[in-house]
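G., the chain you wanted modeled:
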Amino acid sequence: MYDVIIIGAGVSGCACARELARYRLNICVLEKEEDVCCGTSKANSAIIHAGFDAEAGSLMAELNVRGNYLMDQLSRDLDIPFRRIGSLVICRSEAELPGLQALLDRGRENGVPDLSILSRDEVKAMEPNITDDIYAALYAPTGGIICPFELNIALAENAFTNGVEFRFNTKVLNIEHKKDFYELETSDGVYEARYIVNAAGVYADVFHNMVSRNRINITPRRGDYCLLDKSAGAHVSHTIFSLPDKLGKGILVTPTVHGNLLLGPTAIDIEDRDGVNTTADGLSQVLEKAGRNVKDLPLRQVITSFAGLRAHEDGHEFIIEEVKDAEGFIDCAGIESPGLTSCPAIGERVAQILTEKIHPEEKPDFCGTRECIAKPSDLTREEYQRLICEHPAYGNVICRCETITEGEILDAIHRPLGARSLDGVKRRTRAGMGRCQSGFCSPRVMEILSRELNVSMADITKSGGNSRIIMGTSKDSL
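Predicted structure as C-alpha cells:
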C-alpha cells in the first residue's frame, strides 16, 4: 500500500514525484515503458515559453509564467543546460500588427516581463536571416531553450535519490476505487495506493474515465520535426515563431542547447495514441513553413526527423485538480505546450493539493540538488587530463559525432535509474544523436551495455520491449 502512486514518468509525473519527495510519503511512479522520458517529453520543441500565448486567467498561463521563473534555479540545482535566448513572434504586414499587440497585451496581463514590439530594422539587426518581408515582431527576452531529456531524467533521478520508487515496464490496465484506497491492476500485478496522480499524457483521459462519471477527452496531436546538424545551429540566435493560430504556435525555427537547429512542429490530430511516425506531407509542411520565416535555411544539413504527440484536451486547458467524484484521484491531464515550461510549477501545484489533504511531515534530509556529471566537453584541457588519469574510460571516445566517451556511457548506465537500452544511453549522453545518427557508435554502445549489465548482446534493445537490434541469432552464440 503506497501513499501516492503517480502514473507516468514524463516531465509532469517526475516533477510531481520530486516535489512530493520533500515529505515523509511512500511514493511509487508506474511507467509502461522501459525508462523515463519515453512519451511526449522526449519529442517536443525543447522551448521554455515566456507565457504570452496562453489565455489570460487560465491555469495554463499561470503555470507557464511560474515554470519559466523557476527554471533558472532548477537548472542550477539539477545540473542541466538551460539558456534564455529570447523569442520573436513575427508578422509580415501592418494588417497583422493587431495580432502582435494582442499577444503583447495578453503577455503583460499574464505577468511576462520585458515584452516589446520591435520594428523591421530592429529585428533584422538581431536576426540577419529573418525573412525579408518582415514587418514587426514581438520580442520576449525571457524565452529560453532546454534539453527535455536531461530535464526529465534529472527530475526522476532527484526524486529517486530522495526515496521515490520507480517501476518500469508496468502498464496500468484498470483502476478500481475501493472504500478508502485505489487498486491498480497492472501488467506487473496489483498495486494499491491511498492517492493517485494521473500524469499519463495522451492516456490521461483513459484513466480519468475509469474512476469518474464526468468524462474528459484528449486528442493526440502529432507534431513533425526536422533536426539540422550543428553546422546550421547558428543560422538563428533566437526562437522564431509565426503568429499563433487555433492549432498552436505554428512552425518554429530555433537553436537547441546542444548547438543544432530545430524546425517544427506540425499540428495534426490523429487517433493513434502511439502514432509517432513522421509523414512526407508533415515534413514538407515543416520545411515549407519554416522557410517562410527564415531565409536560406541549409536544408541539406537535415540529419534526422521525428514526431511527438501533444495531449490536447478539448478545452485546451491544463486539468490539475482532485476529481470531484473520485476522492484522492488527482488529475494532471491535458498537459500540452507549454507543459515542458510549466512542469516545475505543475509539480508544486500537485504537491500543494496532496499535502493539504494528507498533511505529511517534511523530510529534514531532503536534497534538492543532483550530483554533477563529468562532461569532458565542459572541462579545461588540464582538467580533462586529470580526469583521464583517474578514470581512463573518459579517454576512449565511443561516439565520434558528439565526442562522447566510454566514461560518460558508464556513468549513464550506473547512475540512479540508469540506462538499459540504446535510446536510454542516447538520452543521457547524446551518443548516437550526431550527424551519422548512431551509424558508427551503436555497436560499441551495445557492447558496453552487454558487458555492464551482464546480458547477451541479443538482449540489448533500442528502446525496450521487443525492439531488439540483433535478430535471428541464438543468444548462446554471442
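The chain has a mean pLDDT of 96.

Shout if anything looks off.
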